[in-house]
Write the structure tokens for this entry.
Amino acid sequence: MQHRVSLTQFLIGEQRAGHVSPDLRLLLEVVARAVKAIGVTISKGALAGALGEAGTENVQGEAQKKLDVIANEILLQANEWGGHLAAMASEEVETVHQIPFDYPKGGYLLLFDPLDGSSNIDINVTVGTIFSVLRNPQEKDKDPSENDFLQPGREQVAAGYAIYGPSTQLVLTVGNGVHAFTLDREMGGFLYTHPFMTVPEDTREYAINASNIRYWESPVRRYITELQQGKDGPRGADFNMRWVASMVADVHRVLTRGGIFLYPLDEKCRAQGGKLRLMYEANPMAMLIEQAGGAATTGRERILDVVPQRLHQRVPVILGSRSEVARVTSYHGDGAASA
Ligand code: AHG
Ligand code: MN
Ligand code: MN
């Protein structure tokens, strides 16, 4: 039997190398345990009564699916008692989730999108969980405020996602490259299968919801039109398109075989600042992509440099292979940034 390194062995190695503290290691182990539990419920689907609407709305006015609520509960409960966290924030919770007073508080803040790709749950297509870890800037015994969470993404100490696809994988960075682990369902553990993932610099594949074309700004419309013209256009090459509509699945493809992913600013989402959430979607994905050698921008600014104003703030997202991200960014700088 082939010997594989477990997630625990990997994290102990990172701790010995000085890349993670003991508390951060515990935090990542607990997140891994929680996503395993979420994956079990997802894989049972209708058998667990887990499909369909919850009949409630989250803070962003979006209808919650049962699995949004279940995944959120699993993550909150798993992370409350270990003593590694000062507080949590979630897509599904309006304000900061404080650690109950009877548990000790730790030095980290955990943010998450418990269930990414909710529209794909009921059709049995890949979904995920995205998370981001920041340091708590407050003194240990004080309850952190929303303000304490509002740190730019470059301050993240760890970021990752779980992807619930044909196999369940955990993709992780602690600032020392991107590493993926595959869940061994029989043994119940994550095994190290993809060391130092890299995004190829060039690509011939893009991901965007093209039904929004009439809402796009001119730099994005120009960029995508040129890709669609293929061999007959200025790029002189054909490009392929994929759109799963689960950010986790689309970004995982980019991390695995290259590509560019865009959810740009458009007239439909302009008032909100974008579609995707900065603190628990854009920032962790931007850290992973940069750690894998790619680039991530709003079109006008590096995502990891955006200074957040609100917990649930939204931003435009363009990320992936460096050469393509650089090209779209340059189009934004061509003075044609208005719609
Ligand atoms: P969530 O399910 O957490 O609300 O996120 C959905 C996001 C993201 O996963 C995906 O890239 C995007 O919404 C898809 O949006 P469209 O339905 O507009 O294509
Ligand atoms: Mn999401
Ligand atoms: Mn979600």
